[in-house]
UniProtKB/TrEMBL annotation:
A GO molecular-function annotation: RNA binding
GO terms (BP aspect): tRNA pseudouridine synthesis
Entry GO terms, CC: mitochondrion; nucleus
Span of domain Pus10-like C-terminal: 307-538
The protein's name: tRNA pseudouridine synthase Pus10
Enzyme class: isomerase
């Protein structure tokens, strides 16, 4: 059914509200909101048609009242002639009551003038919605939204439409509510502010079907979708509307790091809940002043993050895990993170990423064996659907791009699964191989006792080399087992299976006594580490992908 043929579900109690709001400069759709009209089709009517119907509703009411008053006067005159002697000179009680009712219900000259002024069309910018439910809510805006979506070239099946409104709309709505509340109270009517339809809700009721049409039938859903189209409205002309609240309710407006302005929608709503009506009316006009311009809309598209996980090997002893920047100066030309991320970012056409892994190795440490688990959060990916074969091809692209790293088990995972990489991380074990130098000459028998040491507990004070980025603390870590392989009188290989988070280099050289016990104490000679390899990271995630 054509929305323009839908009759507005208005009631007798709505008449004084309609008169008040039209005189205040509200648009037709905001009038419906304050009349608590919850029929969605009513908002999809052309605003010009809605305005005409509202005016007819008021005019018909006044004509009926005039006719009723004339008929009543005639009956009263007839009655007075028959009973002239028995009647007093005063007006009959019923006639007096009727006249008083008519005078109260008839709109003031100012209200009538305002309603007449808007008969040619809803051309004024609404004092409440600032034009959002007028020219910014129709086919033209739906086309702009659809164009923004198409320009982004996203992959999606459904979308959710979200709306961000300027905080001052809350102030203007509150002002109009107080304006209406006075009229409602005088009429002895009951109207709950919570029943007033929100601007966001009305906007979505109107726009969802239009956007679906412009996108060729793609559903605009009301609940959950991985793809969100946000329409943000701003109105600099009236930004100062909120400022008086900072003086009247200062505790509601506290600066935050991530917010450019203290006048957030939430803070304004909180302040309006606290401020007494009389105080509000003292600082802000009721009804609100007429704006000269409409809001400015900005459309943004956002796809929920996609998460990719895998394992990486690192074969180079001059490659940091993440970009190495000191005092603003880059020290190495690349990193594990960048070598992995670049092809993935390009394939998913994402705006950015967050990289994490199960621990990290130093720049001069290799990661061998099955590799180290890693995960990437891809921000606002424009492409989000990949088959297992496509993921395999992407893995191959990464591996062919550099001989410094290799990736395996590359796969798309859920956000929830990401937590498994970090769960119980310190309880996991890691295996290492270290090339150790000793100051004193050694023989094979001098190091054989190390093979028998089990579950050695270390007290490790934060190493000097990481003290600039980690808090000073003493951490207990365990070396579960060790084995040695003699090379020559000053060198041997030491294999260790340790609790995750153990500082291996510091165990070998002692870190000036900051790790106790250490290999120097065990061998009664100074020792140092020349090379270190991570042989395995015993985290059973992500699951292996069959070749």
């Amino acid at each position: 059914m054509d929305e323009n043929t839908v009759m507005l579900p208005l009631k007798e109690k709505d008449k004084p509200i309609i008169q008040k709001l039209l005189s205040a400069g509200c648009c037709a759709r905001c009038v419906l909101r304050f009349c608590c009209v919850s029929v969605q089709a009513a908002y999809r009517k052309q605003p010009e048609e809605t305005l005409k119907e509202l005016q007819m509703f008021i005019n018909d009411t006044e004509n009926d009242k005039c006719q009723d008053s004339v008929a009543l006067d005639s009956r009263d005159d007839y009655k007075s002639k028959d009973a002239a002697e028995s009647e007093t000179s005063e007006d009959p009680p019923n006639k007096r009551a009727k006249l008083e009712t008519s005078i109260t219900d008839v709109q003031s000259e100012e209200e009538a003038a305002a309603v007449v002024k808007s008969k040619d069309g809803d051309s004024r910018v609404c004092v409440v919605c600032l034009g959002i439910l007028q020219g910014l809510c129709g086919t033209t805006q739906a086309i702009k939204i659809a164009e923004a979506v198409k320009a982004g070239n996203y992959e999606f099946d459904t979308l959710v439409l979200s709306v961000s409104l300027p905080a001052q709309l809350c102030v203007r709505e509150h002002s109009c509510w107080l304006y209406v509340k006075k009229e409602v109270r005088e009429k002895g009517l009951v109207l709950d502010k919570d029943d007033v339809i929100q601007v966001k809700e009305a906007f979505k009721w109107i726009m969802q079907g239009m956007v679906t049409k412009e996108l060729g039938g793609i559903a605009v859903v009301t609940k959950v979708s991985p793809f969100e189209v946000s329409v943000e409205f701003t109105h600099p002309e009236t930004d100062a509307d909120c400022h008086f609240l900072a003086a009247t309710c200062p505790d509601c407006f506290k600066p935050t790091k991530n917010k450019q302005s203290v006048f957030t929608r939430m803070a304004v709503v909180k302040a309006l809940e606290k401020i007494p009506d009389a105080k509000f009316l003292k600082h802000y006009p009721c009804p609100p002043t007429q704006p000269t311009s409409s809001c400015s809309p900005q459309v943004q598209c956002l796809h929920v993050s996609v998460f990719v996980a895998g394992r990486y090997n690192k074969f180079c002893r001059s490659l940091p895990q993440t970009p190495w920047v000191i005092d603003g100066e880059r020290r190495m030309e690349s990193s594990v993170e960048e070598l992995i991320a670049a092809p993935i970012l390009s394939a998913f056409r994402a705006d950015g990423f967050n990289f994490s892994s199960s621990g990290r190795e130093d720049v001069d440490v290799r990661t061998l064996g099955n590799g180290r688990p890693f995960a990437m959060e891809l921000l606002n990916p424009h492409k989000s659907r990949f088959s297992k074969e496509q993921m395999k091809q992407l893995q191959e692209t990464i591996n062919q791009s550099s001989d410094k790293i290799k990736v395996r088990d590359l796969q798309i995972v859920t956000r929830e699964a990401m937590s498994r990489m970090k769960e119980g991380e310190e309880e996991k074990t890691k295996s290492y191989t270290a090339l150790v130098w000793t100051q004193k000459p050694i023989q094979r028998e001098d190091i054989s006792f190390i093979d028998d040491i089990k579950d050695l507990t270390l007290d490790q004070k934060t190493p000097l080399r990481v003290l600039h980025r980690r808090a000073l603390a003493v951490r207990q870590r365990a070396i579960h087992s060790m084995s040695t392989r003699f090379l020559d009188s000053h060198h041997f290989y030491l294999r260790l299976k340790t609790q995750a988070g153990t500082y291996i280099k510091e165990f070998v050289h002692g870190d000036f006594g900051r790790t106790i016990p250490n290999l120097c104490q065990l061998l009664k000679t100074d020792t140092d580490i020349l090379e270190l390899d991570v042989e395995s990271v015993d985290v059973d995630w992500p699951p292996p992908v069959p070749e």
